[in-house]
TrEMBL record:
Record-annotated active site: D68
Transmembrane segments: none
Designated name of the protein: Uracil-DNA glycosylase
Encoding gene (name): ung
Domain of life per record: Bacteria
């Protein structure tokens, strides 16, 4: 019998075993698989956990937390804010690249593939991991929030120093489950055109994240995805 958990790598399956075997995930699993059968849902099933599958839990260094996947055709690929090579940049990603250029002087790129960040231990996570085509936030309150809470709790508890970059209200609400004494939290409004001018621009998340990593004797992130 199919379960979304089959698309999750063994190291994360092991970490999240208790949650995956519980009622909340079983209900979520059934609802989401039914949605895939009935409607167009993004990202493809095999990519729902792509952000997690890029790394083992102990290798997470930075978490960038968004809201839910892009809902346009061919956009969502399981990494928050990222799109496949050749896909037109969504407005939120354009704004991320504008802020990156201002913050650390990396020229904006037409390449929206952020997998080079993931390969360095940047967990590009949304609070909700699936969405119905053309219906933003349509899978809210299905149980994904509890699943991603569990991920954040485990990382907060088990990892030594993580930089959590929380963009938008849905992401910032997660602060309460993160141990702020052990980890660095960087908050800003969501980079979407609706809110970017309320404080996302000039928030300097890339330089702040690297400063925090260096201060804790960790390798900084190469935020330039242009050479991917």
């Amino acid at each position: 019998m199919e379960s979304l958990s089959q698309y999750l790598s063994p190291s994360w399956q092991q970490l999240l075993a208790d949650f995956l075997e519980g009622d909340t995930f079983k209900k979520l699993d059934a609802i989401v698989l039914t949605a895939y059968d009935m409607k167009t849902v993004y990202p493809p099933k095999q990519q729902v956990f792509a952000a997690l599958n890029y790394m083992k839990p102990e290798d997470v260094k930075v978490v960038i937390l968004g809201q839910d996947p892009y809902h346009g055709e061919g956009q969502a690929n399981g990494l928050s804010f990222s799109v496949q090579p050749g896909v037109k940049l969504p407005p939120s990603l354009q704004n991320i690249f504008k802020e990156r250029a201002h913050d650390i002087h990396i020229n904006p790129s037409s390449n929206g593939d952020l997998s080079s960040w993931a390969e360095q231990g940047v967990l590009l996570l949304n609070t909700v991991l699936t969405v119905t085509a053309h219906e933003a936030n349509s899978h809210r309150n299905w149980g994904w929030e509890q699943f991603t809470d569990e991920i954040l709790k485990k990382i907060s508890k088990n990892n030594e120093h993580i930089v959590f970059i929380l963009w938008g209200k849905a992401a910032q609400n997660k602060q309460k489950i993160i141990d702020t004494n052990r980890h660095t939290i960087i908050c800003a409004p969501h980079p979407s055109p609706l809110s970017a001018y309320r404080g996302f621009f000039d928030s300097a998340p890339f330089s702040k994240a690297n400063e925090a990593l260096i201060a804790h004797h960790q390798e900084p992130i190469d935020w330039d995805n242009n050479h991917k």
